[in-house]
Amino acid sequence: MPKYLFAFHGGGGMPETEEEGQKAMARWMDWMGGLGDKLVDGGNPVGMSATLTHEGLKDGGGANPLSGWSIVEAESLEAAAELGKGCPILDGGKGTIEIAPVVEM
Question: Phi and psi (nearest 5°) for 86?
């Protein structure tokens, strides 16, 4: 079955309290748990990225910095998008998921 990379961008930022952090983590774990065997690799959040160009390394991660990633299995891009619809990063319109097929080499 094809695999798809979910590249997470944006989101609500870092929780201000431990309780908010626990609630956010619970939402992520619930979503991931709901994916069942479609979740190939839960991935990880990432720190602030930098962008390497022919001119050198630039801090800040560009216009839409990466905030994390996961890999899922799905029959199609549309099916992968359906799996992503319940992701907490989409809550409140503060984040997005870029979806790309993983090309087997």
Answer: -90, 5
